[in-house]
Design a protein that fits this description.
alpha+beta; binds flavin-adenine dinucleotide
């Protein structure tokens, strides 16, 4: 996967923590990391549960996208009252 990404122009910055994502008009322009400022045209955020901390400041709510839907209410019994 790494090799395939590199062939497509992906740049990997390893051993660094992503601190924030900068953007203009809804487009990512840079990632601020513990190893410095990395300019970009696009960014893949795959930080698992920690993705929320990077996405929330951009107005992207991961919680609502991933939250399980509320289970439907218990159906009323199909059994006619007369048989209960
Ligand atoms: C206790 C537990 C048990 C689970 N059991 C199962 C199971 O049995 N089966 C199953 O299918 N799923 C299970 N899951 C869910 C599974 O772990 C996740 O769905 C899966 O790991 C998500 O993969 P991911 O690549 O998106 O994120 P992750 O595997 O969480 O990887 C995210 C990576 O990003 C890195 N990272 C985080 N923040 C930053 C940052 N700011 N900068 C740089 N790097 C960062 C992390 O160090 C990590 O290496 C379990 C989860 C938990 C918590």
């Amino acid at each position: 996967m790494v090799k395939a990404g590199e062939e497509l122009g992906v740049r990997y910055v390893t051993g660094a923590e992503a601190l924030s994502v900068e953007g203009v008009r809804g487009r990512a322009t840079a990632v601020v990391t513990s190893a410095g400022h990395v300019e970009c045209d696009e960014v893949v955020i795959a930080c698992g549960a920690d993705s929320r901390a990077l996405l929330t400041p951009l107005g992207i709510n991961v919680a609502s996208a991933c939250a399980p839907t509320r289970p439907p209410p218990c159906p009323r019994s199909a059994t006619p009252r007369s048989r209960r």
